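Most newcomers find our protein records easier to grasp once they have seen one. A learned vocabulary of local backbone shapes supplies the integers on the structure line. Here is such a record, shown just as it appears in the course material:
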Amino acid sequence: MTLLNPRALGRATLARQLLLDRTAAPAADVVAHLCGMQAQEPQEPFTGLWSRVRDFRPETLDGLLTGRELVRVPLMRRTIHLVTADDALAWRARHDAMLRQRVLTTYRTELAGVDPDELAAAAHAVMADGEPRTLAELVEAVSDRWPEPPRRALGELIVGGVLPTVQLPPRGLWGSRAGVRNATLSGWLGREVPPLPDDPADPVGQTLVRRYLAAFGPAASADLRAWCGLAGLPAAVKAVQDELVVFRDERGRELLDLPDAPRPDPDTPAPVRFLPSFDNAILGYQDRSRIVDDAHRGLSVAGERALLVDGRVAGVWTLSDDAVAVTPFRPLSRAERAGVTEEGAALASFLTGGTSDRVRVAAP
């Protein structure tokens, strides 16, 4: 069985994540290929797409959101993801049990005695008029039936668990600071969420496995589980096993992959890239050593924006006073610093609408 070291896995990840070469594909197709983009910080997907899509413009994503081709929904790991409308509908029922359970586990004491199915029925009745509502408005509408649970806990169970919801624009539009207004997913898209097929081979899960490997492979079942929050999809993995090729990493884990997916030579040059907060190129794995050292692994869950140099996380960055401010983790060579400065200047221009291309690189 072929052994893949972290550098080989890292180059595969960069290729699948469109971080080796920017693509000319439409932004909607990129979001679909990536199986969505984590988006609880509403402005971050713009940077994620800019780093992957040639000549990306913010108004493109705005149009996809207002045109209802892309939606912002609670999905993988109960985090807000930017996904295509088709994927939101196809995947929501498969994530339903996980979404409910994660809220109920987080608020085990606070939600004791609340029947999720009764709450779902009440919330559906409230939203039947088609009017968008904030979390507070939803809770107020059902508070006479459930007066005791803390409002935050009850609201999260509604919008993040029992009711398939979408966060409406202007939330998530370029430069917008709008709050969250929720609509039902089916109401916003004009299509019902299909029920799960009664099939023990888990056909929806099979699609998730194939799509995940196309965007993240080679990967272990534990990586798949860490990405989606579902319990490993064992039936789906078993059903597609014969379609896949198998590798092993240095830790001895079995890695699955699509046979024809790109696995570049480990020595393939990797350009400097700036990642947004919570980018799935890092968070999409249980073992993130292919792209980030264990010493810096926590930055991804802390919301830090990562700088990639030679295919690995080599620092963090932020936008400060209209300049991209970079803090490297190690000394940069002259060529690396030049690459960081060039890419950072282009990013600064993008984020400031062309008014600044300033970059500041701090000492490590």
